[in-house]
Amino acid sequence: MVLPLSGIKVIDFTGVQAGPSCTQMLAWFGADVLKIELPGKGDVTRQQLRDIPGKDGLYFTMLNSNKRSLELNTKTPEGKEILTKLLEQSDMLVENFAPGALERMGFDWDHVHKINPRLIYGTVKGFPENSPYGDLKTYEDIAQSAGGAASTTGLVEGSPLMSGAALGDSNTGMHLLIGLLAALLHREKTGEGQKVYMSMQDAVMNLCRMKLRDQQRLERNGELTEYPQYPHKPFGDTVPRGENASGSGVPGWMLKCKNWKTDPNDYVYVIFQPWGWENVCNVIGKPEWITDPKFATPDARIPHLFDVYAAVEAWTIDKDKHEVVEIMRKYEIPCGPVLTTKELLHDESLRANGSIVAVEHKERGTYYTVGCPPKFSAFTPTITASPLLGEHNEEVLLGLGYSKDQIASLREKKVI
């Protein structure tokens, strides 16, 4: 099977999640990804949130499959020499160090570009270049806060809330991946490498695009009719938290099902399309609402949406979420169950189609991870285990022309 990035060599100077999620996908697409790690320590996530004492944590294994690992102290002259040799024969370098770290190491973009003009230099930082926050060390929750997600998430009267989805980390990694692949195509046309700068704030803002849409609508009209505040509460000068509103012109809400008291996830989300209103009314036993002036049209329903939600919930409350979905799908009413992490992990259909994948690890045995999200007709990535720390030290250095004696000397000097 020919993979699209076969033959592409990537130096992976990333850690934790934003960078590794990107370089892992490059590896799934066939690139030879060499993860550079601090000798004796490695990526901090190897030791974080361990479920098996002394073994690499799932945090690391689920973000670093299909890679090789080289321990390298790049603060030493010998380490810098090895990195330079790697750069000379590589196609990409990807890093997500704190601002200025790689520059202090002596391998900023200008220097790397001189070493290898064809090399693509991918970098993840918290904020865009020249941002007043550019020196901040950024994590997931900081990115969600600074990118517009937190201020628009949560209850109307509550504090801002974080999303459980990695909007700041893995989302940024996927945005960087897009940029790197575009730069690779650009190099095919020009022969020249380039720097791809990806900020976590930019990545989060891109997913909050509709909230920026709503900010402009609010500034023009003073209200947002699809938000739960309308028409009962006045709007301020910024997009408010929308609770469980759908975030579009088509209303939707999270509704309780019969086991909600004992199962905090026995809920279903239902969307009310204008062209399917008759079906909704018939299913929930409110056929009179089809012609009732207060409910007959989308605009008429807006002031009474919570009456609609209450009526639908009175119908869902004696059924579990799966029963609700089975009935509503027959009437083409858009709805979906709240699926838990347990349900997803053990879903046989997700395992069958490669969305959840079992991986054999040399030390920890079998673990499960998310498979390659896009599914291709021409190839299917094979997901292999993440590397042990320094597992490929000798293999990489022999490939660079070092002898076994030289490798032993580098080990004694703690270069590797």
From TrEMBL:
Positions that bind CoA: L72, N73, T74, K75, N96, F97, A98, R104, K137, T138, Y139, E140
Top EC class for this record: transferase
GO BP annotations, alphabetical order: oxalate catabolic process
Gene Ontology terms, MF aspect: formyl-CoA transferase activity
Residues annotated as the enzyme's active site: D169 (nucleophile)
Pathway the protein acts in: Metabolic intermediate degradation; oxalate degradation; CO(2) and formate from oxalate: step 1/2
Catalytic activity: formyl-CoA + oxalate = oxalyl-CoA + formate
Catalytic activity, EC: 2.8.3.16
Superkingdom: Bacteria
Assigned keywords, A-Z: Transferase
Signal peptide feature range: none
InterPro entries found in the cross-reference section: CoA-transferase_III_domain (IPR050483), CoA-Trfase_fam_III (IPR003673), CoA-Trfase_III_dom3_sf (IPR044855), CoA-Trfase_III_dom_1_sf (IPR023606), Formyl_CoA_transfer (IPR017659)
Family: Belongs to the CoA-transferase III family. Frc subfamily.
Job description of the protein: Involved in the catabolism of oxalate and in the adapatation to low pH via the induction of the oxalate-dependent acid tolerance response (ATR). Catalyzes the transfer of the CoA moiety from formyl-CoA to oxalate.
Quaternary structure, from the entry: Homodimer.
Xref: HAMAP family: Formyl_CoA_transfer
Protein name: Formyl-CoA:oxalate CoA-transferase
Organism per entry: Caballeronia glebae
Gene name of the encoded protein: frc
